[in-house]
Amino acid sequence: MTELADPARIMPEMTSPTSEERLEQATTEDEPDVAASVGDESQEASSVAQSKQDRTTASVAAQDQEEGTSGLPAAKRPKVEPEKKKERRGQSQKVDEDEIQKMQVLVSSFSEEQLNRYEMYRRSAFPKAAIRRLIQSITGSPVSQNVGIAMSGISKVFAGEIVEEALDVCEKWGETPPLQPKHMREAVRRMKSRERIPNTKYKNILFH
Amino acid sequence: MAEVEDEGDYDEDLDDGGGLDASGHGKRKRLFSKELRCMMYGFGDDQNPYTESVDILEDLVIEFVTEMTHKAMSIGRQGRVQVEDIVFLIRKDPRKFARVKDLLTMNEELKRARKAFDEANYGS
């Protein structure tokens, strides 16, 4: 899984549960909607969380983030192969625990506005049923639950990338949120030029 | 003699809900308005984002899903969308790839935990 901690456990309780407790908490959440709790539980990719933290808590978060993802220096890496695997898992667990603790410290120091925003960031999700219905209307045949889970997760990341880019544009133009359509469109234009937005409408014919 | 442009073509306001909207998609109902508002706030926008921005973002997301679906239909098993296809398409994008892996792993864990929980209830 990711190296980052799981702040969903941190927010309500501010404890450091083990993975069993994490599962137990997860199963006591919305029973009918698996993937919503899946969305809540797993941490967004590090760069998304980082930019969010940059906006809210400046240097502390940036330092924490860098320390967490840098890993251990080469000198500590063991020489023997089977030991290496166990050590690496132990190391990644240790990194995981570190990350969890750092996230706890971070989230516990949020202001109320930051907590609200963080909660929205974690909890918001696309409705899996609607996404599945959309996909099925395109394919014409039913799709599995996992496809719905995967697609709604990716769509959320996609929406986040656009909003982040638009906020960059907004800041660059010396304006303030709320985001206006011109920011969104400029963000889309930039992302298209970096090929971050899929477009199969125009084929590049190389040799005409 | 020349064609008279319809006012509806240039109607970019939301006053006219029945005519063409800014993206020219016609009368499609807004699928994700509420969720997208929360999402935009979570990602850094204002607490009340502009409705036009939410609409643009919704159109972008729907186009994204449509593109991915079409691509997924053309690879692997033709005409079907499977998880492996999505993971394959996403492989170059580290964020999305990591996210999908996490979600699917979590889902498996949850299913296993629930199954164990149910069995424990049944047994004892």
* Integer-rounded radius of gyration of chain A: 20 Å
Broad structural category of chain A: mainly alpha
Average pLDDT reading of chain A: 72
State mean pLDDT of chain B (0 to 100 scale). 82
Spans of chain B of 5+ residues with little confidence (pLDDT < 50)?
Answer: 5-19
Note the gap between the termini of chain A.
46 Å
Shape of chain B: extended
Helix content of chain A: 55-70%
Report low-confidence residues of chain A grouped into runs of 5 or more: 1-5, 10-72
Strand tally of chain B is 0
From the spread of the alpha carbons, the general shape of chain A counts as: extended
Question: Descriptors for this entry?
Answer:
heterodimer, A: 208 residues, mainly alpha, disordered N terminus, B: 124 residues, 0% strand
Offer a quick outline of the entry.
Chain A has 9 helices and no strands. By secondary structure, chain A is mostly helical.
Describe this structure in words.
The complex is a heterodimer of chains A (208) and B (124). Chain A has 9 helices and no strands. Chain A is mostly helical. The N and C termini of chain A lie far apart (46 Å). Chain B is built from 4 helices and no strands. The model of chain B is unreliable at 5-19 (pLDDT under 50). With 124 residues, chain B is mostly helical. In chain B, helix 1 (33-43) crosses helix 2 (51-74). Classes of the chains: A mainly alpha (208), B mainly alpha (124). The interface between A and B is large, with 75 and 61 residues.
Helix and strand arrangement:
The complex is a heterodimer of chains A (208) and B (124).
Chain A: H1 7-13, H2 19-28, H3 34-41, H4 46-70, H5 81-108, H6 112-123, H7 128-139, H8 145-172, H9 181-193
Chain B: H1 33-43, H2 51-74, H3 83-90, H4 94-123
